[in-house]
C-alpha cells in the first residue's frame, strides 16, 4: 500500500465536536483542510449540524443575519403541515422555499503530533451573509507570501461558489470575497507564484456536453482569475465515470507539482489519484496513473452517512512524508501517510 492509514482512525468524529447552538447536533466533522502552523498541525474541519429531533415536528437549522453576523436558529414545523414538502434526507421545501436538513461551518482542530487533535469549542468561519445562508464547506489553506489564505465553498439559494479569507494567527480571519463565480468549487491555490502569477486549480460545474473537470487559472492578486484552461477530464472506466475534482494545495517537487485529486465513479464511489503537473507550465499534465492510490476499504469509509467516500482537501509534508487528511463517508476525519518517494513511484 502506498498510503498507510492511521491506527487511530477516525481521528475526529461528530461526538468530538461541540454544537454551535442550542438545539443543534453535530452529524459530521469531515473534509478537513490542513496546514502546519508554528509547532502544530491545524485542521479546518467542515462541521455539519442538524437539529435535535422531536416526534411530530420537522426541524431545520437556519441562519439569520444581523449586521454581518450569522445567528443560528431552529425553524420548526408541524409534521402534518400541508405546506411542507419533504424533498429527501437533504431538506424540505416550505411555501416554496428550500431549507437544508444540515448546515456546515468551518471549525479548527489542533495537534502537536498530527494525530491527536483537540477541536475548538466555537466556529472559526461561520456564515455571515445571505451568500452563505446554506453554509460554508470544504476549506483549503495555502501558505503564500507569508500569510495563510483559506478558500472554501459558500452555499445559498443562488448556488455554490468559492470565497477567500486570510489569516495570520488562526484566531481571526479577514474575508476577501468571492473569487470563483457559481457554480465552482474544489479550488486549490498553489503555494508560490509561477511566471509572476498566482495560480490555482478549480472545478466549474458542467451541465453541458462534458462532465465536471479540473481547470487551471491565473491571477495577479488572488482575487481576479483568468486564462482558464481545462486540464484534467474524467476518463472512461469505473473510477471517474461521473466527475473529477482537485484536492489541497499541490506540493512542489523537483519533478513537478504533485497533486492528489478525487474521482467520482460508478455507484458514487470516491477514490484518490496522484497527478504531476509541469513546474513552469502547470496547465500541462506530465503524468497521471490509470488507477487510484487510495479508495474506500474499511467500515468507516464504506459505511457512514455517505458510503464509499474518501475525499481529501488537506495534506501536510512532514519529514519526507505526506500526511493526507481526508473525509470519510461525509462523517469523520481521518489520516493516511505515504512517503513522497513512494507517491512519485506511482507515475508511469
Structure overview:
With 348 residues, the chain is mainly β. The chain has a single domain, classed as 5 Propeller (Tachylectin-2, Chain A). It is 3% helix and 53% strand. It is built from 2 helices and 26 strands. It has helices at 299-302, 340-344, and strands at residues 4-5, 24-37, 40-51, 57-66, 69-78, 84-88, 91-94, 97-100, 103-111, 118-119, 136-144, 147-156, 159-167, 174-180, 184-189, 198-204, 214-219, 226-232, 243-245, 251-253, 256-264, 270-277, 285-287, 310-318, 321-328, 332-339. The strands form 7 sheets. Strands 19, 20, 21, 22 and 23 form a 5-stranded antiparallel β-sheet that branches. The chain is globular. The model has no long low-confidence stretch (mean pLDDT 96).
Q: Which features would summarize this protein structure in a list?
A:
348 residues; mainly beta; Tachylectin-2, Chain A; five-stranded antiparallel sheet; four-stranded antiparallel sheet; 2 helices; 26 strands; 53% strand; globular
What structural category characterises the helix and strand content? mainly beta
Number of strands: 26
At the fold tier of CATH, the topology name is Tachylectin-2, Chain A
Our Rg estimate from Cα atoms comes to 20 Å
CATH level 1 class label? Mainly Beta
Helix content: under 10%
Number of domains: 1
Low-confidence stretches: none
| CATH level-4 homologous superfamily | Glycosyl hydrolase domain, family 43
Order of helices and strands: EEEEEEEEEEEEEEEEEEEEEEEHEEEH
Number of helices: 2
How is the main sheet built? 5 strands, antiparallel
CATH architecture: 5 Propeller
Terminal Cα span: 17 Å
Q: Averaged pLDDT, please?
A: 96
What fraction of the residues are assigned to beta strands by DSSP? over 45%
Q: What's the shape?
A: globular
